[in-house]
Amino acid sequence: MVDMDDQGVGGLVTHSGSLRWNIRGFSRLVEDKYWSETFTVNGCKWRILIYPKGNKVHGHLSLYLEVAEPERLPVGWRIEAKVCLAIINQYVPSLSAIRVTPFHVFLAEEKDWGLKAFKSLDEVTDCSRGLLVNDTITVEAKVDIYKKNETHAWYKESLENLTGEEEELEMRLEELRSKRTKLISDWGALMSESEEVKSSYVAEQKKIIEVEEQMKKSEEGRARSDTTWARLKDLLS
Predict the structure, then answer these.
(1) Which pairs from 207-210 meet CB under 8 Å and 24+ separation?
(2) 83-112 as b/e: b if 16+ CB within 10 A
């Protein structure tokens, strides 16, 4: 079995169970969905549910763990559990596609957990990736059932952690707001200074143009004077 132990609610697990299911002839499956055989954990039957072509999602394989025969459970039943689902990489097990929920509540109206877009079909059917070998894929499910009436400790710890994270984020947000205000202020000053520089540049350019015009007129006047002087010299000679 691949290592699917990850992010559980420590110390509260009372029962565990798992099932590995080899699905042969994957490319020839024609039904929308298929179920595995059942396995029992603490008196409750479980089974894997797979949609080879996706559960109302295009281009993905959908995979779930569900409570089998829920009608046989007591009225108002409730199961708190950690669930791990995997498509096994048959070449390198450590590269298996694994999804985990550390805490899920199974109820009569919500008897399964899984993902519609568990894995891209392009990746599943790419034989070089090791998920489909000899037209066979292997899926695995593991469920850890928590002790009833004790998950409040996990909730409390999670709430405290979230509160701490929220306070830290609030402080960070205030820092970012302060930086944003300063940046806006600096930008305004920079834009104001930029406008002054621009106005000064335009004024200087205008002066340069005026001087150039005056020089041009002066040169034209000098040229006319030179021409007139040359004519006078011709008349006097």
Answers:
(1) none
(2) bbbbbbbbeeeeebbbbeeebbebeeeebb
CATH topology of domain 13-148: 2.60.210
Which of helix, strand or coil describes residue 27? helix
Tell me the C-alpha distance between 125 and 114, whole Å: 20
Distance (Å, whole) CA 69 – CA 47: 10
| Coil, strand or helix at 82 | strand
Domain ranges of the chain: 13-148, 151-205
Alpha carbons 36 and 34: distance in angstroms, whole number: 7
Rounded CA separation 201/123 (Å)? 62
Separation between Cα atoms, residue 20 and residue 170, nearest integer Å = 45
Could you give the residue ranges of the DSSP H alpha helices within the chain?
121-124, 152-236
Which two three-digit tokens encode residue 167?
């306070």
Nearest to 104 by CA among 46, 60, 163: 46
The 10s digit of each residue's pLDDT in 112-154 is: 999 999 999 999 999 999 999 999 999 999 999 987 644 444 5
Instruction: For residue 20, give every residue at least 6 positions away whose Cβ sits within 8 Å of its Cβ, in sequence order, or none.
Output: 1, 88, 138, 139, 140
Strands 97-106 and 44-51: what pairing?
unpaired
Cα distances (angstroms) measured from residue 141 to each of 75, 85, 90, 208: 26, 5, 16, 83
- The model scores a pTM over 0.85: no
Q: In whole angstroms, give the CA distance from residue 70 to residue 45.
A: 8
pLDDT tens digits for 71-122? Answer: 999 888 999 999 999 999 999 999 999 999 999 999 999 999 999 999 999 9
